[in-house]
Structures are given as structure tokens and as C-alpha cells.
Design goal:
Length: 261
């Protein structure tokens, strides 16, 4: 699944336009012990209304474990009314700016992130940790109990197998005027439940992306997974239809969708 993560830095977002390009949004609820992101309510309501799956991230500023818990308490306060629509976890975000306040050791830094995650987990939220390779290998201890959202913009994921991969900070998405972080989700996302449109050669969009992903997992070559129903995707659809005993027309309607899953 393709998605973005956003904060007030991305300005006013046209979520209906965004929905044409991506499947989910991870939204910054706030930061520190008391600050709500200025666009949090607009973003979470807009994304949900547009039909996107939604997750949360919180930028942690904390000197110790007690302040980490205060961060988590504020996060919970702000997101609790949206609990039912938060299906893509609450992510702990500790970065270089977090370290500017007070020097931290690997042990203390790890304890802060654990405390944040464990508090929200105790309240029934699924949690995870946002990190880059430098922090994973040099600045954090063992956080392997939490799903990883990996930030790595160079080629590939460096041998890691994250739940989610932030692969660019320079994405361009209709409906957002700024550059935006781009992500691919590999984790335990719930089934693709939005009614699927009929797609055929020349179609574009998230339904085509999902079709390409499903065909690829079933062993059919679709070329690039790019949301564009081109020749390779058409050939893969026809091969799937032939193998499944369907009418071989290259059109993905209800019967073909039902078997693709």
C-alpha cells in the first residue's frame, strides 16, 4: 500500500485529490508534552472523510521516562476521540531534534521510546517506532518488539524488513502544495475493503496499484507497480483470467476481483 505522512508543514491539504494517488496517511498529532499539531484535526478528519486509512505519529521531546509518559498521555488525549479510525498504528518518532534538548545515552534514549510505546500499548493502541539506520545501529538499543517504520532514502531498505518504509521526502502528490514524505506499507494492514472499480487497459489509480500488487504476489509479471494499467498489466490479467477459468477479456470487474482477493 502506498501512503504519505504529513504535518502542518505540508499546509492545507485537499484530501479528495490526495485520495486519487495514495491509500493511507500517517498524521502528526503533535509533539512534546503539550503541543497539538496545528493541522491535526483538519488532517485526520479530511483523510478519513476522503476514505484513506489513517495512522498517527508523535514527535517526542523528553528528558527522561517520566516526560516520555507525559508525551504519550498528551498523544492519547488528542487521538482518543478518533480511536476507531486509527487502523495503522501510533508511531513513536524520536529524531535528531529530540536529542538537542539534553544529551542522551543509548540506554536512556531507548528507555524513553519504550516508555512512550508501552504507555499507549497499555491503553489498547497498536504502536510502532519510526527510525533511520543511524539510530537503529548506533543510537538505540533493542526496540525489536515494536514494528519498524524505516526512513531510508537511498536505494532499497538496506537489508531491513520494516512494517513501513519511508523511501522519499520529496514526493509530489496532487492536493498537497509542498514536497511530502512517501511511504510503502508492508505490515498487517487490514483487508482492502473499499468497493473496487472496474479497471481495464488505460485505467490509472490506487485500484490498479492494488491489482498489480495482488497479481505480482500470485506470480504474474506486471512490470512496474505504478498504478497504470498498461500492456504488461493487461497480459497478466488475461493470464490470470485464463488460469482461473474466467472470460479472457482483460477487464477486471466483480468476478475477477472476487478471485484476485
Amino acid at each position: 500500500m502506498k501512503g504519505i505522512d504529513v504535518s502542518y508543514h505540508n499546509g492545507i491539504i485537499n484530501w479528495n485529490k490526495v485520495r486519487q494517488s495514495v491509500d493511507f496517511a500517517i498524521i502528526r498529532a503533535g509533539y512534546g508534552k503539550s503541543q497539538m499539531d496545528r493541522q491535526f484535526i483538519n488532517n485526520i478528519c479530511g483523510a478519513d472523510t476522503a476514505g484513506l486509512k489513517v495512522g498517527i505519529y508523535w514527535f517526542i521531546y523528553a528528558d527522561d521516562v517520566s516526560e516520555a509518559i507525559a508525551n504519550a498521555e498528551k498523544c492519547e488525549e488528542l487521538i482518543s476521540k478518533y480511536r476507531e479510525i486509527i487502523t495503522m498504528r501510533v508511531w513513536a518518532d524520536w529524531e535528531y531534534d529530540s536529542d538537542k534538548r539534553n544529551p542522551q545515552t543509548k540506554e536512556s534514549r531507548t528507555a524513553i521510546v519504550r516508555a512512550f510505546c508501552d504507555y499507549l500499548s497499555s491503553k489498547g493502541y497498536e504502536v510502532g517506532v519510526y527510525s533511520n539506520v543511524d539510530y537503529i545501529e548506533n543510537k538505540f538499543g533493542d526496540l525489536s518488539k515494536y514494528p519498524l517504520w524505516l526512513a531510508r532514502y537511498s536505494s532499497g531498505m538496506g537489508g531491513y524488513q520494516p512494517f513501513m518504509w519511508q523511501h522519499s521526502s520529496k514526493g509530489k502528490v496532487p492536493g498537497i502544495s509542498t514536497d511530502v514524505d512517501m511511504n510503502i506499507y508492508y505490515g498487517n494492514l487490514q483487508g482492502y475493503t473499499r468497493p473496487r472499480s472496474t479497471v481495464r487497459a488505460g485505467s490509472r489509480g490506487t485500484d490498479v496499484t492494488y491489482l498489480q500488487q495482488r497479481l505480482a504476489t500470485k506470480g504474474y509479471s506486471v512490470g512496474a507497480i505504478d498504478g497504470i494499467f498498461g500492456i504488461k498489466t493487461l497480459e497478466a490479467v488475461k493470464a490470470f483470467q485464463a488460469d482461473s477459468g474466467l472470460v479472457i477479456d482483460g477487464i477486471v470487474g466483480p468476478k475477477t476481483w472476487n478471485l484476485i482477493g
